[in-house]
TrEMBL record, chain A:
Assigned keywords, A-Z: Cell membrane, Membrane, Transmembrane, Transmembrane helix, Transport
Protein name: ABC transporter permease
GO annotation, cellular component aspect: plasma membrane
Main location: membrane
Source species of the chain: Streptomyces longispororuber
Classification via Gene3D superfamilies: MetI-like
A Gene Ontology biological process term: transmembrane transport
Family: Belongs to the binding-protein-dependent transport system permease family. CysTW subfamily.
Automatic annotation (TrEMBL), chain B:
Protein name: Spermidine/putrescine import ATP-binding protein PotA
Functional note: Part of the ABC transporter complex PotABCD involved in spermidine/putrescine import. Responsible for energy coupling to the transport system.
Entry's Gene Ontology cellular component terms: ATP-binding cassette (ABC) transporter complex
Residue ranges of every copy of the ABC transporter domain listed in the record: 8-236
Summary of subunit composition and partner proteins: The complex is composed of two ATP-binding proteins (PotA), two transmembrane proteins (PotB and PotC) and a solute-binding protein (PotD).
InterPro entries xref list: AAA+_ATPase, ABC_SmlMolc_Importer, ABC_transporter-like_ATP-bd, ABC_transporter-like_CS, Mo/tungstate-bd_C_term_dom, P-loop_NTPase, PotA-like, PotA_ATP-bd
Key word Translocase present: yes
EC number, UniProt record: 7.6.2.11
Amino acid sequence: MRTPFRWLRRNLVVIAGLLTLAYLLLPNVVVTVFSFNKPKGRFNYSWQEFSTEAWQDPCGVADMCGSLSLSLRIAFWATLGATVLGTMIAFALVRYRFRARGAVNALIFLPMAMPEVVMAASLLTLFLNMGAQLGFWTVLIAHIMFCLSFVVTAVKARVMSMDPRLEQAAQDLYAGPVQTFLRVTLPIAAPGIAAGALLAFALSFDDFIITNFNAGSTVTFPMFVWGSAQRGTPVQINVIGTAMFLVAVVLVLAGMLVGRRRNRKST
Amino acid sequence: MTDTSGDVRLTGISKRYGSFTAVHPLDLTVPQGSFYALLGASGCGKTTTLRMIAGLEEPSTGTVCLGEQDVTALPPYKRPVNTVFQSYALFPHLDIFENVAFGLRRRGIKSVKKQVGEMLDLVQLGEQARKKPHQLSGGQQQRVAVARALINHPKVLLLDEPLGALDLKLRRQMQLELKRIQTEVGITFVHVTHDQEEAMTMADTVAVMNGGRVEQQGAPAELYENPRTTFVANFLGTSNFIAAEVHSVSGDDVVLTAGDGKLVLPRNRCAAATGPGGKVLAGVRPEKISLAHADDAGTVPDGRNRLTGRIAAASFLGVSTQYVIDSPVCAAFEVYAQNVERDPRLTPGAEVVLHWNPAHTFGLDAGQDVEAGIEKVEEDA
Ligand SMILES: Nc1ncnc2c1ncn2[C@@H]1O[C@H](COP(=O)(O)OP(=O)(O)O)[C@@H](O)[C@H]1O
Ligand SMILES: [Mg+2]
């Protein structure tokens, strides 16, 4: 009786890890499996038979690919805007002593802490009072706004751990302010900026609540999925979901590969 | 005619942070090609002074000149000066080769391969060119930092406690190495350290700093033999002080009274006023003193300064023995005696006569703290 017990104790960490992983990945597996389903009715909720129909015609559902491309465009511009602004704010907060620095530091966290519905409703009130036309631009502005806090937080952590003497060393070695920023500051802050940008992209792409309030008649991908779920779920939604998941996995693997090659080169 | 383009001249330079003065106005001249050490305890303003030369800190008052050129208004990247930072500040995202090539590339030099290779060979790191800084040991990182600065052939190389993070053995080795490199390249080195032994072994000239001021500067032997303040006397090695009063001045000598005895001191080694009745601290280094048992008091030659006392403690250190002696004029007088012919009677409790050549006495102003600079010696910067 003691041997299996000991085996269990020795492998407990591995088992726990595998179980957690399964917990995380199971939804994705279901999505992928059901992307090969051929449902009887309008709802893709029970397994019928294997088919690659949906994969062969991913844009076969009216308006779906339009909403997908809109979401991707919004996510791209929101990521760009939030990353540039957020990086500058993070540097300002860490590197410069100015009045109300503490207040700004606290206020930056507010959008993360505020319930999303509240923010969505207030934004709508604001846009309506300003007479803005709801659509692409209002959604983009809203997305940049709530992504900012996350970018600032990610970049700030990185900048705070940066030794200011590295930049002084660069200056001492004949690098002017621009060169110092490009050759030393930016490369060292890059992991924080990249993390912030990834977060911003993911948040913007699948945001529903704020978008739904402020989009007017524009329909993003999450809004499309939500809307179609009332009437029936086309298999193509699972196809898009699986494709996005695969793209993310490939990107992560590529990142790891590049990192490993760079390490090997330097040893 | 001597080349003065590598001179560093600081004139009335000072630095204030708010109401706190880190460096009081000071004048310093470091001659071209010399190895100059700024020595002082942690927090005395060494780094601040160095950073003002590099241009990384703007002086509150005063000017910095390199040779004939006033560089006070120039940003660091326009000064022909390079720095080896206290914790090296190597670029973590660049490999060793690129770290060393950084300065050359910024000045638009395209073919850096040969120069970088030679420089890495000079510091014996040719094999490590493609490693990242975090893959090197402390001593190797230190050499990269030196190479990265030296490759630019600066007029002046500034080193901020470059050996502070190394263990003792490696530190001794690197001291010799740095000294060799300095002799070889002939560049002016300004070396900051809190280690008096390091400053004395490496530098041609040492400036002792205390509380944002330069207390004294000079060749190491000169500082050791002729300290002008108790701080310098205690910071560089150990000193004994006897509170005394000026009795008279005869020729080149000052005659002092201490207790009921008399001490003689060369006039040119007295940093205090020598008017009759003036208070003077008479100092003498522990290794200059000879001990004789009280029974042999008659054998002590005439013309030597002498005191009496009792041995309070003796510790045998192999090459020498360190005695602590209680004397009426000075508690805890330290004496180091070479173990050549040891008198077996010199044990704790024995009455002794201390005597030394008057030429080895120095006189300091009595208005200072006798203990200045003592406990700070062990402190790490
Ligand atoms: N940026 C700063 N702001 C305020 N005080 C400072 C600053 N830099 C240094 N100081 C103070 O100036 C004094 C001298 O510092 P420093 O030159 O680094 O000393 P050292 O290098 O001799 O140890 C210290 O008391 C330190 O606290
Ligand atoms: Mg320092």
